[in-house]
Design goal:
9 helices; 11-stranded mixed beta sheet; 22% strand; 13 strands; alpha/beta; two-stranded antiparallel ribbon; 345 residues
Length: 345
């Protein structure tokens, strides 16, 4: 009878092979689980949406949720826009780009974060684009779009140009956030598209190793980074990303220190432990770099005991697989509170 586990009697000479086999199997299993979850999140989000599918954004005035598409670099790209009721007024509104993780979708990002609900309360536009083959070209050089020659910075630039032609957007208050692959991409946008972004807030992600030497934002870029100390997929210590296309990232500390240097902040952060709201095995230790150029700020919310997750969001896979989703921080409200502090120079 065939077995789906390595033989228990493996000799020492086979230990490395067995270990590699186990690691590959765990990676495959996790990838499959994430794929199944993506389908579930997308289906749930689609059930909630009141959608008008368009390719010409000018036809969507007055709608609350819009599915759109455009061609960038020869590829047809899709995106989802959530408009709060305030979008029908003459007031220009802030805009948040929310980028899904590897294997995800824009509509799934809505279900994970609940940004749309907050947008209705606070009056900002949410744009959740779809990655090429469910991934973003985040600078690691290993993702499907990078192998296909996709330029996602150009895509987001073109998308922002398109949205600004249709909606009343406050061009001084455009922001980017994302999780995992989408979070790494948010860092890359902070490096490459600083002329259009007022602040970034990556979650469960650090700066890609390949991106670090060439990252020079056009202005001091405010950063809120949220990351779990027990993340099993993008480890706090940095190095190889353990699921998906791989590639390397800096450690959490190296990332915030480099960003604090880029923003000319004071070298030593103030460390504060935030109040514990629930006893879920997590705690938030906040590192704040102050005195940054241009009124910028660099903040690291270190989720002690937290996993590869969006704090306050959906526990999208069991804690045994991705770690804990902290309830001691609501990442969505924390990110919006941070973004509100900053406008483009």
């Amino acid at each position: 009878m065939l077995s789906d586990t390595p033989p228990a009697t493996a000799t020492a000479s086979h230990a490395h092979t067995a270990s590699s086999w186990t690691a590959r199997r765990l990676t495959f299993t996790l990838a499959c689980l994430i794929g199944l979850l993506t389908l579930a999140l997308s289906a749930t989000a689609c059930q909630r949406r009141i959608t008008t599918s368009v390719s010409a954004p000018g036809a969507t005035t007055g709608t609350r949720d819009v599915d759109g598409s455009l061609v960038s670099g020869g590829f047809t790209r899709t995106y989802h826009v959530h408009l709060p009721s305030a979008a029908s007024s003459s007031r220009a509104l802030p805009l948040i780009f929310a980028f899904h993780g590897g294997g995800g979708t824009g509509s799934g990002m809505e279900g994970l974060t609940h940004f749309n609900e907050l947008a209705d309360q606070q009056g900002f536009i949410v744009v959740a684009p779809d990655g090429y083959e469910h991934h973003w070209a985040d600078g690691r050089g290993t993702t499907p779009p990078e192998k296909a020659g996709v330029d996602d910075v150009a895509f987001i630039t073109a998308l922002l140009d398109t949205l600004e032609q249709q909606y009343r957007i406050d061009t001084h208050r455009v922001y980017a956030t994302g999780i995992s692959n989408g979070g790494i991409f948010s860092f890359w946008l902070g490096c490459q598209l600083a002329s259009r972004l007022a602040a970034i807030a990556p979650v469960a992600a650090m700066l890609a190793t390949n991106d670090a030497p060439t990252c020079h934002p056009a202005h001091p870029m405010p950063l809120l980074m949220i990351h779990g100390s027990d993340d099993p997929i993008i480890p706090a210590a940095g190095g190889a990303v353990r699921v998906g296309p791989g590639g390397g990232v800096l450690s959490d500390i190296a990332t915030v220190q480099q960003w604090a240097t880029l923003d000319a902040c004071a070298p030593t952060p103030t460390i504060t432990t935030l109040p514990q709201l629930v006893n879920d095995g997590t705690q938030v230790r906040q590192q704040t770099y102050s005195g940054c150029a241009g009124g910028s700020a660099v903040i690291f919310d270190d989720i002690l005991g937290g996993g590869h997750a969006w704090p306050g969001g959906l526990q999208y896979l069991p804690a045994a697989v991705i770690g804990k989703t902290s309830r001691n921080l609501d990442a969505t409200t924390a990110i919006w509170a941070f973004f509100q502090r900053f406008t483009l120079p």
